[in-house]
Amino acid sequence: MKYSELIDVYEKLEKTSKRLEKTDIIAELFKKSPTEDLTKVVLLLSGKVFPTWSEEKTGVASQIMIKAISKATGINEKDIIKQYRKTGDLGLVTEELVKKKQQKTLFSKTLGIDKVHDNFTKIARQEGKASQERKLDLISELIAHAKPNEAKYIVKTILEELRIGVAEGVIRDSIALAFDVDSKEVENAWFLEPDYGKVAQIAKKGELSKVKVKFGIPLIPLLAVKAPSLEQALKDAKEPAIEFKFDGMRAQIHKKGKEVWIYTRRQENVTNAFPDIVELCKNIKCNECIIEGEVLAIDKKTNRPMPFQKLSQRIKRKHDIQKTIKEIPVQVNLFDILFLDGKLLFDKKLKDRRAILEKIVHEIPEKFQLSYMLVTKDLKKAQKFYEKALSEGQEGVMVKNLDASYQPERHVGYWWKVKPTLETLDLVVIGGTWGTGKRAGWIGSYVLGCLDSDTGKYLECGMLGSGLKEKKTEEGDITMDELTKLLKPYIESENGQDLKIKPKLVIEVAYEEIQESPKYSSGYALRFPRVVRIRIDKGPKDVDTVERIKEIYSMQKGKK
């Protein structure tokens, strides 16, 4: 299949914001795509080279891309940087440069989907000495043979900047339309095989019902709803059970024989970072299972949980693992089971899943244990349990419906989270401003973005500038220096003091209230926002949506 056929679809999608039109356009592409190309087509259409759960990444920053563009076009790097600062889009810059080059050479090679995806894959797999040079060669080879519009999208895809409004829901509905199947069937297959490229292939063959659990590939987790109050959560749950809402890392643990895999909520494989948990899991009484729990960092002196930021040091660690295990011991609190010895347990009620979990887990108190669960409809007892959670350093409580099945991915109202303050929001940094005076050299303020789930784009919802420290004075402090270092690699363009930043870094934000505001593209602004913590366990697609912001705004109005 020619890459140009995919480019035609990109350009059509950029011209419409209507979801149904996007679905029709994509469905037509899927129908005419050869079965062997479908996986690559779906991934590239989503702006990806690998599925979300894959550990492989292209790992190309804008600085390397500028060198590759220079190598392919013969244009000086300084001139490319100058144009990049004007447009803020390296894809557009490349398109213009390739146009000029082709006017002189009148030569381009027909690129196929296979060749483009193959080079993308090789870019991600370069390691060791001279790996950057090999990456440059692979990128510049594609650009040199590409037509101008192809070159633009090659650059955008490698930099993970392909923003054409294709969210996962649109892909799901397009697969259903293309192959005349129910979208619920498509989604159910995706829960077990979280790669819509493979799901599309399976749907085309008419084999969606045959999709099964694969160990070593994470399942899509159930998500909780944010409750306005403990009282409301108890009412909504109908058959409520209450657990601590831990300030840790949600872990999905796969065990098959003696093999163990550990995944985060974002489907990242962190098995190598937690060999101590792997050993503990080998004692689970089953041949095959998939269980869920929360991993906490524990203070050795007080035996109390430490902030998530401390645990993040273990999640990110790639070397000296044994040393870190001693410095930051962990506790695992297990709360659910999704699969056991050949049987998927999604349709079972929570109370039944919990009973199964209790039978197979050999508990080691304070180390590897089942989360304590209080079953009650009594608000006073629930309130006392809630206060106990807070006094022990946890975030709040989870209220769960014991009569509910397990519904992956959706905020369906089976689990509710209750926290003591006006609900914080997880937002992505999409812009900023260089600081002045004492803040010179640091990004002094940050544009916050929420997700438009229909288009997949990020909308501004406020500016964060106060509450950040210049220097760390105690554990958990987040400084301007720290945020600047994290964000610098993602600066896309500069216009005077203002910065456009690639949506990568997610932060948890507290605020006084939400106001309507025509100043920001979301139509809303956070009043007095302040950063609570950096969410390394979440990616841009996990951030709160504009719909959620509207919902909180409506609740505020109701209270007033």
Give an account of the 3D structure:
This protein is α+β, with helices and mostly antiparallel strands and 560 residues long. The chain folds into 3 domains: 3-158, DNA ligase, ATP-dependent, N-terminal domain (DNA ligase i, domain 1, Orthogonal Bundle), CATH 1.10.3260; 225-418, 2-Layer Sandwich (D-amino Acid Aminotransferase, Chain A, domain 1), CATH 3.30.470.30; 425-559, Nucleic acid-binding proteins (OB fold (Dihydrolipoamide Acetyltransferase, E2P), Beta Barrel), CATH 2.40.50.140. The chain is built from 20 helices and 20 strands. It has helices at residues 3-14, 19-32, 38-45, 62-73, 77-87, 90-105, 113-124, 131-145, 148-158, 168-178, 183-192, 196-204, 230-237, 275-281, 308-316, 321-327, 350-360, 379-391, 480-487, 546-559, and strands at residues 225-226, 240-245, 249-256, 259-264, 288-297, 330-340, 343-344, 368-370, 374-375, 396-401, 415-418, 425-434, 443-452, 457-464, 491-495, 498-501, 506-510, 513-516, 524-527, 530-534. The strands form 4 sheets. Strands 12, 13, 14, 15, 16, 17 and 20 form a 7-stranded antiparallel β-sheet that branches. Strands 3, 4, 5, 6, 7 and 8 form a 6-stranded mixed β-sheet that branches. Strands 1-11-10-2-9 form a 5-stranded mixed β-sheet. α3 (38-45) packs across α12, α4 (62-73) runs parallel beside α6 (90-105) and α10 crosses α11 (183-192). The radius of gyration is 24 Å and the shape is globular.
